[in-house]
Write a structure and sequence with these properties.
This protein is α/β, with parallel strands linked by helices. It contains seven helices and seven strands, in the order βαβαββααβαβαβα.
């Protein structure tokens, strides 16, 4: 079982030292670890503290071209977009798809939400509400936001689902399957029960294993996800970046 690619990595373009390394450093580690492909997916534009700036995208593209030439690793340009409203808006616009090879989306704090109302619906409700026993209202609101985002945008990967924003996992995964969106098995954290994962697998949901690396040395480090796959016996055929390379962007 070989990991062919890592599609959730951050660089210095995730600002304020949140991402520690350069594109070249990420690619060099990927090369050393035998990865054939990576994606640079810095935090979305509406993240107050860590978001990549749109004006920096030309620099990211230039860095990617240089790192490809130096390392021979194929490198995709993406973004880890933020969910910014209860109506499923995320912080990408139509013009962004001109440069995106891959679109990741997840819930994050410290984000510019679309309205004051959504600050309370998301940030405050999820920050101060229980992560283990969310109210039915909060669970439904969070789940609806993810479902609407899947309907509105050509999202390739949902990152760290349920982290900081509990949802009806199976409802989100089922629509993701219908839309051709992958559910991430995160190298740092997996916020699903074993039963949820087993049900998702039995229903044909497809997964992607990613490191969520914020420093170059963590690129390709996915032991948490790989151990879960082994432990539960999840079908390798449903993990799109093990023993093969996935394709992205077909929905755009």
């Amino acid at each position: 079982m070989i990991l062919f690619g890592d599609y959730h990595t951050h660089t210095k373009y995730s600002r304020h030292n949140h991402g520690k390394g350069t594109v070249l450093e990420n690619a060099s580690v990927a090369q050393d670890k035998g990865l054939k492909q990576i994606a640079i997916t810095d935090h979305g534009f509406n993240h107050y503290a860590y978001g990549v700036r749109r004006r920096d995208i030309p620099s990211v593209k230039e860095d990617i071209l240089n790192a490809k030439e130096v390392t021979g690793v194929d490198i995709l340009l993406g973004v880890e977009a933020n969910l910014i409203s209860s109506s499923g808006e995320v912080d990408v616009v139509e013009q962004d798809f001109e440069f995106l090879d891959i679109l990741l989306m997840g819930y994050h704090k410290l984000v510019k939400f679309s309205s004051k109302k959504d600050y309370f619906r998301f940030l405050f409700a999820n920050k101060f509400g229980s992560p283990y026993a969310p109210s039915k209202e909060r669970l439904n609101r969070n789940t609806t936001a993810f479902l609407k985002a899947l309907d509105k945008y050509p999202i390739d990967v949902i990152t760290h689902l349920n982290y900081g924003c509990p949802t009806d996992t199976l409802a989100v995964a089922r629509l993701a399957k219908e839309k051709g969106t992958l559910i991430e098995l995160n190298g740092k954290r997996i916020n699903f029960t074993d039963q949820e994962l087993e049900i998702m697998a039995s229903e044909g949901v497809k997964f992607i294993v990613n490191s969520d690396a914020h420093s170059p040395d963590k690129v390709g480090e996915c032991n948490n996800a790989l151990d879960t796959i082994f432990r539960l016996g999840l079908p390798i055929s449903q993990i799109v970046n093990i023993d093969k390379l996935p394709k992205f962007g077909s929905k755009r």
